[in-house]
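One chain shown below:
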Amino acid sequence: MTDSDIYKLVYEIVTEAMIVADRSGTIIQANPAAVQLFEYPMSQLVGMSVDNLLPDALRKIHQQHREKYVRNPQRRSMGTGLDLNAQTATGKLIPVEISLNHAQTEGEFHVVALISDISNRKNAEQRMRQLNRELEEGVAQRTTELNAAVLALEESQHLYSLIAQNFPDGTINALDADFNYIFAEGKEFANSGIDRKKVIGLNYIALLPESYQEPVTNELKKVLEGIPRTFEIVSKDNTYIMSAVPLYDEQKTINRLLLVEKNISEQKQAEQDMINALNKERELNELKSRFVSMASHEFRTPLATILSSVNLVTRYADSNNTDGVSKHVGRIRNSVRNLTSILNDFLSLEKLEQGMVQFKPEEFSMCELAHSVTEDIGGMTKEGQRIQLNCCPNVSVCTKGIIDGLDPQLIRNILFNLLSNAVKYSKENTVITITIEIGENLTITVSDKGMGIPQEEQQYLFGRFFRAKNATHVQGTGLGLNIVKKHVELMGGTITFTSKLEEGTTFVITLPIEN
């Protein structure tokens, strides 16, 4: 097979539309891809003016540009950064990019145009699905075309070199039986800063990343056995799809192969972005479903209690039963408090998810803050429950618990969630302990003697909507600890815990302090 044969072969299999026109703009040659793109039969396409491939409104001005190009021809691209359209035989407009070059063949001036249809870029997901199907179908089709076209190649080496040089986003390579370069062209060489002339004679496998050398060798060996192959490799953060087909000589012997590399990094990134968006949407839908399910259950109980107690309060008031009124007013107060807690959890989670919660460090007294939260929670305690606050036992290190560099509002939310949980999940007549230690870090320890968390479920404790199986009878959203963890991480801290069934749970929070 001669170099001219190789150029002809490339011309036939390249998927971009290719047309050759004379100085008057008359098309004298076109490849099958051009027939497919413009929807003209070959017999009609060859002989028509290139102006007819443009929208009607642009044909006159294009004629002027074409005449100007003939007077001062040079290699250049058209359409990059612009909305450039071609018009098919049916009148359909297709967005395109065009690379132009010129050549003197047998004393005649010719213009070579490589035309790329870029309409599919607007739908990357569809393009990725179609790409796989087209590659599978195209490899078999191209193999047949290659075998049939070997004896029919007639075009000059220079003309086909221009075609290969303009192959976009990839390379076109011919390798011998030892996988050494015998031909190499394509824009990807220029994009990578590689002189394609210097790779001729080098071993293709040796230039690959080491991790790909063995698998690519195995794929190309199959091609030399007559089996077309398609596969992907990643090099320097770029993803390439490789299409390799055997090249037969006049004796139907395979001693070379054609390897077309296409850079599909943009398509891969678009596909990954789409997958991430779908996963995010799926996660949000699941969150909404769980919210509706949980909210319908958690709201029903306190609302029913309020309705029942309101009716009883009215009855007891009519009979001057002050004890009954007080009892049911207390039930109403607790139910309203529960509803408020549920709504606060949802509002906090939404603000965190939307990035509306910000870390605002300032100087404040940790001991005063802890005392304030403890007093607030005191109104929620069960009969006989007591909250013991130990703040800054080492007075020489901590003077009134003054610290800087942390957000008091976030810490207040953390303490409120941990202490309210301790109250809810602990029995009557128990002590809940909160200890504040200030040194290089702020350490907050909250311990209770409650029901504890089953060992097999502890790994899920900070997940959204998680409720341990032994706590389903206690009202709650399952969001509090998830919010606590997010607040701790927002301030650059950590949270750990230990827990045993029927013995209680201890949470330890460590937060860095600015010195």
